């Protein structure tokens, strides 16, 4: 299929796929999917977790070979048999969500890695490596100390290093898998500017993101997949987030402010003058029974540091924490759990769950004392606990004995929440609970949060996405540079005003 450009010229796709089918173990992951990208286009590939996005990218890059009858055309030339080497030689690059970088190596070594690898041993030319890295970064309009190890840099800067490495490979099309999942709004804006620059230079970018506002801001077109099938290809102009959500899920979601007046409810958690040198200062608030308290702010505002202190992972330098009126001083997170405080980490993969372990083992990890009998785990008590929470939170699983890594991001997050609910907490702290979770699963998670609050659980909801706290919290605290800058009642303000204050 050719496309007429703004200048009236007929442009052919840079990449075109037709009739893509993939089956794994009798389950059809892709069903007669077609997909195309124009030169220099920013194109969004949208869909819920498990819809086939990653499978399609792996077909394009030669990791998977589709069923006979598939057609792959690159720059007008049919590709009879795609392979990873062939894809790379054509200029097809992928930046996966985990970036696949080497923290202990320097920035230069990471960017010029392809020049270091090969079957034949040879001396390393560090001058050439630095030159390659600096030129690649210059194309992106950034300057780094390329001799520093990558581990010294923040995640946003590592994203840029990954993009620079793709450019070294003479990229003509770059797939970005959830590139902004761990970025603040300011960092996201900077990354989107880099994507625009790539597009202007003729490099096509395929953007995979669950943040629909970014999708609509950066893309010209979007391809939507659902259950392995092509829903359609749509121009972004005139598209809304709610419409994209409906296309992705086949369902509609109401987005209304859920805030309630909780002033008459008893105080469960009271924080007064809490401070920790270099992280936050003079933090005071009350959290009431059944209340959802939102905390938002940019990276470095002290949100996560405050949460870790409430959870006993860090010791405050000053201030007081009271639970049900009793002063608390935690020496460890174990003491916080015993007191009734639970914390869902923002990093599900590294801290929230143990990926090789089973779904059941992950779920009971924080509540072993509840299933122990005579010093041993009682299988029947474990089974009952697991069954209860999987059913209560609607977790979609195969078998409880399956590895947690077999679940989608949304279902993994439900297990992570269940792990803490199984401890029967008085306070549940949710730190960025929807990172890496698609729009349908997000809605499900916030339905769970609302249900838990209605049942009387006191919840702290932390997010740098202002709409999440605006629509799902009863009150919102804005943290900035370690202090509470403002407090909002979502019923008395607008989303626009709150975003303007937080992202200023």
UniProtKB/TrEMBL annotation:
<feature type="domain" description="ABC transporter">
    <location>
        <begin position="15"/>
        <end position="252"/>
    </location>
</feature>
<keyword id="KW-0547">Nucleotide-binding</keyword>
<dbReference type="InterPro" id="IPR027417">
    <property type="entry name" value="P-loop_NTPase"/>
</dbReference>
<comment type="similarity">
    <text>Belongs to the ABC transporter superfamily.</text>
</comment>
<dbReference type="InterPro" id="IPR003593">
    <property type="entry name" value="AAA+_ATPase"/>
</dbReference>
<keyword id="KW-1003">Cell membrane</keyword>
<keyword id="KW-0472">Membrane</keyword>
<dbReference type="InterPro" id="IPR050107">
    <property type="entry name" value="ABC_carbohydrate_import_ATPase"/>
</dbReference>
<keyword id="KW-0762">Sugar transport</keyword>
<keyword id="KW-0067">ATP-binding</keyword>
<dbReference type="InterPro" id="IPR017871">
    <property type="entry name" value="ABC_transporter-like_CS"/>
</dbReference>
<protein>
    <submittedName>
        <fullName>Lipase</fullName>
    </submittedName>
</protein>
<dbReference type="Pfam" id="PF00005">
    <property type="entry name" value="ABC_tran"/>
</dbReference>
<dbReference type="InterPro" id="IPR003439">
    <property type="entry name" value="ABC_transporter-like_ATP-bd"/>
</dbReference>
<feature type="domain" description="ABC transporter">
    <location>
        <begin position="257"/>
        <end position="504"/>
    </location>
</feature>
<keyword id="KW-0813">Transport</keyword>
<keyword id="KW-0677">Repeat</keyword>
<keyword id="KW-1278">Translocase</keyword>
């Amino acid at each position: 299929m050719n496309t007429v450009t703004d200048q009236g010229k007929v442009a052919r796709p840079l990449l075109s796929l037709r009739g893509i089918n993939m089956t794994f173990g009798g389950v059809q992951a892709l069903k007669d999917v077609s997909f195309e990208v124009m030169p220099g286009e920013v194109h969004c590939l949208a869909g819920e977790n498990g819809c086939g996005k990653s499978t399609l990218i792996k077909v394009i890059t030669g990791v998977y070979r589709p069923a006979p009858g598939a057609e792959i055309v690159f720059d007008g030339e049919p590709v009879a048999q795609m392979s990873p080497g062939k894809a790379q030689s054509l200029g097809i690059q992928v930046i996966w969500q985990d970036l696949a970088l080497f923290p202990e190596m320097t920035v230069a070594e990471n960017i010029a890695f392809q020049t270091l690898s090969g079957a034949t041993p040879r001396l390393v030319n560090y001058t050439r490596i630095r030159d390659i890295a600096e030129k690649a970064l210059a194309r992106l309009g950034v300057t780094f100390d390329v001799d520093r190890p990558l581990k010294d840099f923040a995640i946003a800067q590592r994203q840029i290093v990954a993009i620079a490495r793709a450019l070294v490979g003479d990229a003509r099309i770059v797939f970005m898998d959830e590139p902004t999942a761990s970025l603040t709004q300011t960092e996201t804006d900077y990354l989107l500017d880099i994507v625009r620059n790539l597009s202007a230079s003729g490099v096509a970018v395929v953007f995979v993101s669950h943040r629909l506002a970014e999708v609509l801001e950066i893309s010209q077109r979007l391809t939507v997949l659902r259950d392995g099938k092509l829903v359609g290809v749509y121009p972004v102009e005139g598209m809304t987030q709610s419409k994209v959500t409906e296309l992705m899920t086949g369902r509609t979601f109401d987005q209304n402010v859920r805030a309630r007046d909780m002033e008459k409810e008893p105080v469960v958690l009271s924080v007064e003058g809490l401070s920790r040198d270099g992280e936050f200062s003079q933090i005071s608030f009350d959290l009431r029974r059944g209340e959802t308290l939102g905390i938002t702010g940019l990276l470095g505002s002290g949100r996560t540091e405050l949460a870790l202190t409430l959870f006993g992972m860090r010791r405050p330098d000053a201030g007081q924490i009271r639970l049900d009126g009793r002063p608390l001083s935690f020496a460890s997170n174990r003491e916080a759990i015993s007191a009734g405080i639970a914390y869902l980490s923002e990093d599900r993969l590294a801290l929230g769950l143990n990926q090789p372990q089973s779904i059941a083992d992950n779920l009971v990890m924080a509540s072993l004392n509840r299933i122990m009998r005579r010093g041993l785990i009682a299988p029947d008590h474990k089974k009952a606990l697991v069954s209860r929470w999987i059913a209560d939170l609607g977790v979609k699983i195969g078998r409880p004995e399956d590895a947690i890594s077999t679940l989608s991001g949304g279902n993994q997050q439900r297990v992570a929440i269940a792990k803490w609910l199984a401890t029967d907490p008085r306070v549940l702290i949710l730190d960025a609970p929807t990172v890496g979770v698609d729009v349908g699963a997000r809605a499900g998670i916030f339905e769970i949060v609302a249900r838990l609050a209605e049942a009387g659980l006191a919840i702290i909801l932390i997010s740098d996405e202002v709409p999440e706290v605006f629509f799902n919290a009863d009150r919102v605290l804005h943290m900035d540079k370690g202090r509470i800058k403002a407090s909002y009642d979502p019923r008395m303000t607008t989303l626009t005003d709150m975003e303007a204050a937080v992202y200023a």
